[in-house]
Specification:
Helix content: over 70%
Number of domains: 2
Radius of gyration: 23 Å
Number of strands: 4
Structural class: mainly alpha
Strand content: under 5%
Shape: globular
Largest sheet: 2 strands, antiparallel
Strand order of the largest sheet: 1-2
Length: 469
């Protein structure tokens, strides 16, 4: 609605119309940050909600760009409760959409049944909708089967962060970020914001901030650990690099520049799992996009990068299975399997691994990692958090993603192919680290899933079909 009013203005205003409401949303989020803990932060949230009433698309387009700040919560109001920017944007958008829907029903009660028919038709066309609903159900069941009820609060928080909020974001994105141009804008904002996070992380590392490990300083930026920064950066890096490989003309160089900045930050995290998953995924991207020369160039660059890392940080790279993190992971996986033998049906619950692992399952050789909060494997993690339902959902999701990837290759949809490969690459890294169960990773997965949904029919077409049915 807001963007529509701007489009009716003079030509210069129409040129900025697509970015008008997202820019307003970004300014309001920035205001909440600048005034954290004061009544002005509440005012910013109220204004953001009002913006979502008239332009929910605008607030949602800002959501991907906020993912790099999930570990930098904002104090809203005068209490002690903190929310990260993505939660603030989601809460405001959901409230605005609820207000829009309520007003629509109040204004035209007779349209309620046709609207419900349109909604059911829309849900039936979404590839990932059954998976999303199943995840919410599995998470709700998990809350009632926690192995140690004294830590139920942690499970509830995890349910909010990695299940409820990401699924809500997915459905809102599928409904409001409908146009291909809007999907490109969302991805562009995300990649640019990731580049800014990468530059900040590099600068902080040059100033000496980071984690000393095996003879190197691993940068972490605004994240709690270098691995967390690497997990965040690898998805937008895969997107940007894939688009640079597939595109031609000037846009290719813009994507390539963004990918270069993000990759520099990723290398300085010295996350071996992230580097390997990115290299393999980009090699796959070169093959699927049928650009042999670019694939060969990428392979040569990868070999040079690995050689450079071996020269600069040989202890970090070569210690993987010589008492390093690789050996520790083997002990963690063994403990996770032992945990599954004790809790095979429902697992231990959301965010409960730490409270079972440290007191009962940690091996003496893995004592330095006794405070780990997850089993460093996506399959073990899904099973332990959500039980057999979680494992079944993970396998079902792999099938859906495989079909979406195949469809993107057949139809030549560049953005969908990039989104699918970003999910695949993240899952590959998840075999040795956290693949989904972090706030930014969960939101990333469902936003990429929304991009993978087929272009929907217009609301007018749905309404007409509802009337004739």
């Amino acid at each position: 609605m807001l963007d529509h009013l701007v489009r009716r203005s003079p030509r210069r205003m129409r040129a900025v119309a697509p970015w008008f409401s997202p820019a307003c949303a970004a300014l309001l989020v920035a205001l909440a940050y600048a005034t954290s803990g004061s009544p002005l932060a509440l005012l910013a949230l109220a204004l953001l909600t009002a913006l979502a009433v008239v332009a929910p698309r605008g607030t949602l387009l800002v959501l991907p760009a906020s993912l790099g700040l999930v570990y930098q919560p904002v104090l809203v109001g005068l209490g002690t409760t903190r929310f990260n920017p993505a939660e603030i944007i989601l809460a405001a958008t959901a409230a605005g959409v609820a207000a829009r829907a309520s007003w629509s029903v109040i204004r035209s009660p007779s349209n309620r049944h046709p609207q419900l028919t349109v909604l059911r038709s829309w849900l039936g066309e979404l590839r990932f909708a059954p998976l999303a609903v199943g995840l919410v159900v599995a998470g709700a069941v998990s809350l009632g089967t926690v192995a140690d009820p004294t830590h139920l609060r942690e499970s509830v928080r995890d349910f909010r962060w990695v299940i409820l909020e990401p699924v809500v974001a997915y459905f809102l994105y599928c409904w409001y970020v409908r146009e291909p141009a809007d999907r490109w804008r969302a991805v562009s904002g995300w990649v640019i914001a990731s580049g800014v996070v990468g530059l900040y992380s590099i600068g902080a590392g040059l100033a000496g901030a980071g984690v000393e490990s095996e003879g190197v300083l691993r940068i972490r930026g605004l994240h709690p650990h270098p691995n967390a920064l690497a997990l965040y950066l690898e998805r937008p890096l895969m997107l940007a690099a894939m688009l640079a490989i597939a595109h031609s003309g000037r846009s290719r160089w813009l994507w390539a520049a963004s990918a270069t900045i993000i990759s520099a930050a990723l290398v300085l995290t010295f996350s071996r799992g992230a580097l390997l998953s990115v290299l393999v995924t980009l090699g796959l991207a070169g093959i699927l996009t049928r650009h042999p020369r670019r694939t060969v160039a990428l392979a040569v660059a990868s070999i040079l990068a690995v050689g450079g890392l071996l020269a600069v940080a040989p202890e970090r790279i070569l210690s993987l299975f010589q008492g390093g993190s690789g050996s520790l992971r083997l002990h963690i996986w063994s403990a996770a399997v032992a945990m599954l033998r004790d809790y095979p049906l429902f697992g231990v619950g959301l965010d409960q691994f730490l409270y079972q692992y440290a007191p009962r399952y940690v091996a003496p050789e893995a004592w330095p990692e006794r405070f780990t909060s997850h089993p460093h494997n996506l399959f073990l993690d899904a099973w332990l958090r959500l039980g057999l339902m979680g494992l079944a959902l993970l396998l079902s999701g792999a099938v859906v993603i495989g079909r979406a990837l195949s469809h993107a290759v057949r139809t030549g949809q560049t953005l969908a192919l990039a989104a699918a490969l970003a999910i695949v690459g993240g899952a590959m890294h998840g075999l040795v680290d956290n693949g989904y169960f972090l706030p930014d990773l969960a939101l990333t997965f469902w936003l990429l899933a929304a991009i993978l949904e087929p272009e929907p029919r217009s609301l007018a077409e749905r309404a007409e079909a509802a009337k004739t049915s």
